[in-house]
Amino acid sequence: MKITDTEGKIITVENLQLALLQADDYRHYRHTDPRFSDFDDRQQAY
Length: 46
Description:
46 residues; alpha+beta; 2 strands; 13% strand; flat
């Protein structure tokens, strides 16, 4: 399966169920250094 991300890049997803589980895990991660808060906010868009 091919999808287009929010920046227009095409991503190939071979295992949708696994991709959804990984995305759910990563959405809870954040840097402890507050200087990365803008980056973390952009990454949370996924």
